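Retro notes, item 3 of 5
We never archived the inputs for the zinc ion complex last cycle. Fixing that now. Sequence and ligand:
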Amino acid sequence: MPLYDYKCLKCSRECLPALTMKEHETGAATCPACERTELRHLTTKVIARTSSKS
Ligand SMILES: [Zn+2]
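Structure as it came back at the time:
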């Protein structure tokens, strides 16, 4: 499951809301800190952590 990196335009916090792809596509992300929806998507960071422990 991909994680989407956002930066809040209101409080400038970066956050990683746990979004479904649908929520991501519809822009339903909300800042966990101030609960605004004005989040800017940071496109560069893709969490590609290899979880090969299992
Ligand atoms: Zn915020």
